[in-house]
Automatic annotation (TrEMBL):
<protein>
    <submittedName>
        <fullName>AAA family ATPase</fullName>
    </submittedName>
</protein>
<dbReference type="GO" id="GO:0003697">
    <property type="term" value="F:single-stranded DNA binding"/>
</dbReference>
<dbReference type="InterPro" id="IPR027417">
    <property type="entry name" value="P-loop_NTPase"/>
</dbReference>
<feature type="domain" description="SF4 helicase">
    <location>
        <begin position="25"/>
        <end position="275"/>
    </location>
</feature>
<dbReference type="GO" id="GO:0006260">
    <property type="term" value="P:DNA replication"/>
</dbReference>
<dbReference type="GO" id="GO:0043139">
    <property type="term" value="F:5'-3' DNA helicase activity"/>
</dbReference>
<dbReference type="Pfam" id="PF13481">
    <property type="entry name" value="AAA_25"/>
</dbReference>
<dbReference type="InterPro" id="IPR007694">
    <property type="entry name" value="DNA_helicase_DnaB-like_C"/>
</dbReference>
<dbReference type="GO" id="GO:0005524">
    <property type="term" value="F:ATP binding"/>
</dbReference>
<dbReference type="InterPro" id="IPR027032">
    <property type="entry name" value="Twinkle-like"/>
</dbReference>
């Protein structure tokens, strides 16, 4: 009997060239997308076929942080679809416009340039409120076929699964997302919440993420965004935000990065004395200026 699965059993030598490429990237290969801060650029990557969970306490800026990351991805010629079920598209673009402009009041000319620049880079799923996760998967499949999407942002998991205690549904949804990312060779960013700690001064970790423990087991990368409210009040120059890379399955780095949130531009800055940087909308290089 001819077993179909026998075709998946191959000699290890079949992967020789792929292994060589993993050590020595071909000169014409496309760099793996990343975040464009210097401190993170060589340590974290958003690889195709993977899923990243972005978690944090409610109100600590995980969606705000991911908005700037989305701009970075667009600047690296990625084709991004954002499905935010908690914020209307115009509010998303208002926030992203401030971040791109590096200031509170972008000019009309800049807004026109930015929205023109996003063509071919950024798409938004126009839906606010709960959504059945199977419908979302169908929308994502359509977005790949029609627009060639390479990166998805889903905000948030709880808008796609009914009930915080339905762990089986959460597990099924995340498992389907993982299979989808691998099958279509895309990266998925999934926003989620953490359980309430003893206080907002408690820094959460991956074991504080709400819901099924299988979520962090299934995904490839886990990031925690934490707002340092004490530093905001003390004004002594300590980071006002930390990004913790709690898990990176196919990367060597795990650790924390400190950032300083600039309220005028809504950008996260690399140092206490850094100034917000306006995104260069004419450039095709992977940089902000």
């Amino acid at each position: 009997m001819d077993e179909p699965e026998r075709h998946n059993v191959r000699p290890a030598s079949d992967w020789l060239q792929d292994t060589i490429d993993a050590f020595y990237a071909p000169a014409d290969s496309t760099p793996i997308p990343t975040m464009l801060w210097e401190k993170t650029r060589s340590k974290v990557a958003f690889r195709k076929g993977e899923i990243s969970v972005w978690a944090g306490v409610n109100g600590h800026g995980k969606s705000m942080f991911l908005s700037q990351v989305t701009l970075d991805l667009c600047h690296q010629q990625e084709r991004v679809m954002v499905a935010s079920f908690e914020m209307k598209p115009v509010q998303q673009m208002k926030r992203m416009s401030r971040q791109a402009y590096a200031g509170r009041e972008p000019t009309v000319q800049f807004l026109q340039s930015l929205h023109s620049w996003t063509d071919g880079r950024l798409w938004i799923y126009d839906h606010v409120g709960a959504v059945e996760w199977r419908k979302l998967i169908a929308v994502m499949r359509y977005a790949i076929k029609t627009h060639g999407i390479t990166q998805f942002v889903i905000d948030s998991l709880m808008k796609c699964v009914k009930g915080e205690t339905d762990f089986d549904a959460q597990k099924d949804f995340v498992n389907e997302l993982c299979a989808f990312a691998q099958a279509h060779n895309v990266h998925i960013h999934l926003v989620h919440h953490v359980r309430k700690g003893e206080s907002e001064h408690h820094v959460p970790g991956k074991f504080d993420i709400k819901g099924a423990g299988a979520i962090t087991d299934q995904v490839d990368n886990v990031f925690i965004v934490w707002r340092n409210k004490k530093a905001e009040q003390d004004k002594k120059g300590d980071p006002t935000c930390f990004l913790a890379c709690e898990k990176q399955r196919n990367g060597e780095y795990e650790g924390k990065f400190g950032f300083w949130f600039d309220i005028e531009s809504q950008q996260y800055l690399e140092s206490v004395n850094a100034a917000p940087v306006r995104y260069d909308l004419s450039a095709n290089s992977a940089s902000r200026k």
